[in-house]
Amino acid sequence: MAVPQVNKKLLDELEAMGFPRPRATRALHFSGNSSLEAAIEWVIDHENDSDIDQMPLVAVDIDLDSPQPFDITEQMKIKAQELRNKSHKKKEEEEKKLERQREKERIRASKDLTEAKRILESNEKQRYLALKKKEEKEEKRAREKILKKLEHDKNDGARVRRAFETLLIYVGNIAKNPDEEKFRKIRLTNPLFQDRVGNLRGGMEFLELCGFERTEGDEFLYLPDDKVDMEILNTAGSELKSAMTNPFFGLLSV
Q: Which long-range contacts (CB under 8 A, 24 or more apart) does 30-37 make?
């Protein structure tokens, strides 16, 4: 396939009038290279063709004799200018339409992205809440298990009750004064602590489940301020109170 041969003089004249080369070539080719007027008439008749500005291709070249000179009239110049203006306006309208479509697509993409982000954040929040709830249940079961171990201690019921009361004091003091470090720090070698809690099976384990940590050298049990969880402390206090009000408290044995 090749670009068809057209009259060079007529092609130059059409281009001088402002017609793009592909349109001028197409007009001359399909109007038979007969005259400038015929080419312009063809452009007028086909100005809405979708391929008017595409270079035509033919299987073979055609040699054509140059037609007789043709004078360009003022009316033809005016008509050519009108065609150029109309073509320019059409292109502007198409560009505006395309830009509006792009803007709609950008807005739709932005909305889709926002919705996807919202769903992702919602799912992440639900997973976090479910995990936290699961952890809280596991911690509660662990504390209840330790309390039962304490209740089953072979020592007499009065000592077990004293241990529960001491644990309740520790938990209550921190809940009421979370910023006071003295309530969040327990010396493990303290004789009173050892007698009331430390020597009872599960006593220190209960405190660790409330957030206490052993310091280096196992000198203290310490609850860091960033580990203070009021919900855990309040739940632990409620569990201690509930155990002590149990009518069978201290009567069970291992």
A: 30/56, 33/6, 33/7, 33/64, 33/67, 34/67, 35/10, 35/67, 35/70, 36/10, 36/70, 36/72, 36/76, 37/70, 37/76
Q: pLDDT digit of tens for each residue in the chain (254 aa)?
A: 688 888 999 899 888 888 899 998 998 999 988 888 888 989 888 888 888 888 888 764 445 555 555 566 777 778 777 777 877 788 888 888 888 888 888 888 888 878 888 888 888 888 888 888 888 888 777 777 766 665 555 456 778 888 889 999 999 999 999 999 999 999 998 998 988 888 877 888 889 989 999 987 888 999 999 999 999 999 988 988 888 876 555 543 33
Amino acid residing at 39: A
Q: How many other C-beta atoms are found inside a 10 Å radius of the C-beta of residue 25?
A: 22
User: What number of other Cβ atoms are within 10 A of residue 151's Cβ?
Assistant: 23
- How many Cα neighbours within 13 Å face the side chain of 72? 16
* Backbone phi, psi, residue 203, to 5°: -65, -55
Short-list 239, 226, 241, 228, CA closest to 177: 228
Calpha distance 82→62 (Å, rounded): 31
Local structure of 251: helix, strand or coil: coil
Would you say 44 and 81 are in contact if contact means Cβ atoms under 8 Å apart? no
pTM: 0.41
Alpha-carbon distance values, 6 to 13, 22, 205, 224, 252 (Å): 12, 11, 100, 92, 113
